[in-house]
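Researcher: Let's continue the batch. This sequence belongs to Major facilitator superfamily (MFS) profile domain-containing protein, and it's 163 residues. Same format as the previous ones, please.
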Amino acid sequence: MAGGAVVNTSGGKDYPGRLTIFVFFTCVVAATGGLIFGYDIGISGGVTSMNPFLKKFFPEVYNKKQMKGSANQYCKYDNQLLQTFTSSLYLAALVSSFFAATVTRVVGRKWSMFTGGLTFLIGAALNGAAENIAMLIVGRILLGVGVGFANQVMTSTYNTPLR
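Model: Same format as before. Here are the structure tokens for Major facilitator superfamily (MFS) profile domain-containing protein:
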């Protein structure tokens, strides 16, 4: 049954594995990869509709948003630069996850996670200090590289020791 609501324990294999503290924390760390995406979707969706943000970085969108009489709210946010800002993280995460697999094989998971975390930190700092759209987009791309590395390393099927 979908969802695992009913479990049939007869005829199954008995594996000697058990839930240890290491397994538990590994699962928690792996789950945070998905939280990064969810957090970004919530934050970027909220920020891109804030008037001070739109005034500073996307004045054309801000002016469309302030116009009275427009029936369709979604047409107000129809701006290619705003779409580039929003989608750059996801595209960078997709592309970097392909490269992260090779990096992980060469240098190990520990250094891949460190690289992803460092690029995420630099991207967050760049977005926080952004003065123009170029800084925002470069920051989002670095955030995407960090997210792509983190998700690939956490979901990696390689059974290599941390080094």
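Researcher: Any comment?
Model: The mean pLDDT is 81.
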